[in-house]
Amino acid sequence: MRIILIGPPGAGKGTQAALLHSELGVPHISTGVLFRQHVDGQTPLGRQAGRYLDTGDLVPDRITTEMVAQRLAEPDARQGFLLDGFPRTLPQARTLSELLAADGHRLDAAVEYTVPDEVLTERLLSRARTDDTPETIRNRQQVYRTQTAPLLRFYADILLTVDAAGPAADIAEKTLGLLRPCG
Ligand SMILES: Nc1ncnc2c1ncn2[C@@H]1O[C@H](COP(=O)(O)OP(=O)(O)O)[C@@H](O)[C@H]1O
């Protein structure tokens, strides 16, 4: 299956992806994790991306899509994937459609996780990642509303919306239930 996860920072996409990928037998590909690996490894890509991660702004589409295209070309992702944190803009979404169409593939589902705003901020502050300061969190939430939320309409035909307040295992069960007819 080829699935993308959409939701504001703190919605639990990473947690859900980790629970779902073994059930679904597809790799979990997180652009946030990939970027942080590049930054920690001080690669050329990491040097370009670092300042965006520090402020909570999106890394430019060109850099991001190049990194994702390379990752999707790896053998383990050829049969399917769970994309967490990509696409986050309409141009990224269009590029992803083109990349898949070039191989005769398309997405099976776009899963949207919804959580009340106050729960989101609480979760982010408690995970204490270095880019989780009150300012970057506010900025990432704003970026989500302006740049990523338009994807919900783009993916209207394959969108599955899951209420993501509550225990992670329950949310994963709900997600699997909704995905079953798509696979
Ligand atoms: N698809 C993307 N496009 C541009 N930048 C991205 C993308 N995915 C991740 N990033 C960068 O990585 C940072 C962390 O992303 P992520 O780990 O998904 O955290 P969160 O969901 O909490 O915002 C983002 O703030 C952004 O700078």
Structure keywords:
P-loop_NTPase; 5 strands; single chain; binds adenosine-5'-diphosphate; 13% strand; alpha/beta; Rossmann fold; 55% helix; 5-stranded parallel β-sheet; globular; 183 residues
Average pLDDT, to the nearest integer? 94
Helix content bin: 55-70%
Would you state the CATH class? Alpha Beta
CATH fold topology? Rossmann fold
Largest sheet: 5 strands, parallel
Binding site for AMP: 31, 36, 57-59, 85-88, 92, 129, 140
GO molecular function: AMP kinase activity
Enzyme class: transferase
Subcellular location: Cytoplasm
Description:
The protein is globular. By secondary structure, it is an alpha/beta fold. The chain starts with a strand and ends with a helix. It has one domain (2-182): 3-Layer(aba) Sandwich (Rossmann fold), CATH 3.40.50.300. Helix content is 55%, strand content 13%. The chain has a 5-stranded parallel beta sheet with strand order 2-3-1-4-5. The protein has helices at residues 13-24, 31-40, 44-55, 61-72, 90-102, 117-127, 134-148, 151-154, 168-179; strands spanning 2-6, 28-30, 81-84, 109-114, 159-163. Helix 2 packs across helix 3 (44-55) and helix 4 (61-72) packs parallel to helix 5 (90-102). Bound molecules: adenosine-5'-diphosphate. Adenosine-5'-diphosphate (ADP) binds next to helix 2 and helix 3.
